[in-house]
Amino acid sequence: MKILNISLIQVLCLITLCFVVTIDAKERPNVVMVVVDDLGWADVGYNNPDSIFNTPNIDELARNSMHFTNAYAGAANCAPSRAVLMSGQYTPRHGIYTVSPATRGHEKTRKLIPSQNKDVLDDNNVTLAEMFKAKGYQTGHFGKWHLGEDPSTQGFDHNVAGHKKGHPKTYFSPYNLPFIENGSKGEYLTDRLTTEVVDWITQNKEKPFFAYVPYYSVHTPLQAIEEVKQKYLNHPLARNEKHATYAAMVEIMDKNVGRIRDTLRQHNLTENTLLIFTSDNGGIRSISYQDPLRAGKGSYYEGGIRVPLLVSWPTKVKPGTNHTPTINADFYPTFGNVLKVSKLPQTLDGEDLSPLLFEQGTLPERALFWHFPIYLQAYNVKADQSQDPLFRTRPGSAMRRGKWKLIHYFEEDEYELYDLKNDLGEHVNFASYLPDIVKTMSSELKQWQTRIKAPIPTQKNVQYDREFELKKMQSRLLAQ
Questions:
Q1: How many angstroms separate the CA atoms of 466 and 244, rounded?
Q2: 3-state class of 46 per DSSP?
Q3: What is the arrangement of strands in the sheet containing 320-322, beginning at the earlier edge strand?
Q4: Angle formed by the axes of helices 331-338 and 78-87, to 10°?
Q5: Over 70: is that where the pLDDT of 327 sits?
Q6: What is the largest CA-CA distance in the chain?
Q7: pTM of the model
Q8: pLDDT digit string (tens) for 371-410?
Q9: What is the pLDDT of residue 14?
Q10: Residue 395: which of 322, 311, 300 has the closest Cα?
Q11: How far is residue 245 CA from its own chain's centroid?
Q12: How far apart are CA 432 and CA 369, in angstroms?
């Protein structure tokens, strides 16, 4: 018998969820949530039709979905974004800021001691899965967890391949991953995970279910089925073999999204299924350029945090394009409303998107926030489009309100201000030209940091060496 590792607070929250309200089974939609790993905003056909990417199934889903053009992840890399999604809370509330360690890059180039980082989502946090489970749903997890050793301890009845690690060593069987048996030699992991999803939906089609499908793909290692890869090696838009392999991984992922949708159709589940398609953060720009967005994974410029987002529910959600800025913390209160949970179990930072999805309405303008008191080293100086050649991210915070995007870097207490309506690529920093906007937004940002108890690193790193840093920068620039 398996003993679940849950706290008393968590138990009380789940009891509250169970008895707050009862819902007729016929009123409860099935929910399928596909979260692709490292899929950039520009890496799907419907956002980038003239690109190398062939995504006919996702493009067809986009035509039948509400398509959000200003959708954001809760963080610019994997674990913190997933923690925001599963908890409905911004990073300072759960303390997961990055994939450890937070001390990336050379110690002599870091001016500050970064804030402490957690690797596991605390059991006191009631996850999305626990909320669904408390309302009588079957809950299945298929793919990357990255928030603890086993998602079945945090609300999932069924777990395939979910554990603490962030990526597989190989996409071809034998996988040697926890919680999944190896398949036949050469079986491809994305195909296998989808088979598991299809079988599980088939077994649970008579009950309401929450299928969370966080594919490991398209995260590295870059590996694709050879015959698909061959299609792209001589593609006129393929920059190199890495780019071709990545495009093949995207196509394979797209095919499997189609398989899930086919399964829903075969079992007459489409009309009563809320289907979400999104990504956990921006794409790695050295693999796939995110133009017109600046930078990519690990950066808090648009290419690192803006993601694809499609929401489909044929009987409830009218297809169309929506430009409202959203963040993945919004899913928790939205699902809570769909489930008719009158008292949510914890403080949430997202907004219920129901007025947009179900009422063709609007949301009041609000600010979105990101906090990253850590360091992430550079991938590729030429491709990254970061603030400097050594790091994709130095410690700081960011916010968006309306068309304005503010970034505050802690090391030098400096600000960057961008007009996303007229400068989507964040080329022109208006901070020195529009001090009143910086003053207003920075005040709001500081109030948010105080309210949410966001840690601001201030301790100087005694190992920092300015001369060494400059030489390191010069060396990196000359090497490109």
A1: 40
A2: coil
A3: 158-160, 138-142, 209-213, 30-36, 273-279, 309-312, 66-68, 320-322
A4: 30
A5: yes
A6: 67
A7: 0.93
A8: 999 999 999 988 999 999 999 999 999 999 999 999 999 9
A9: 47
A10: 300
A11: 22
A12: 22
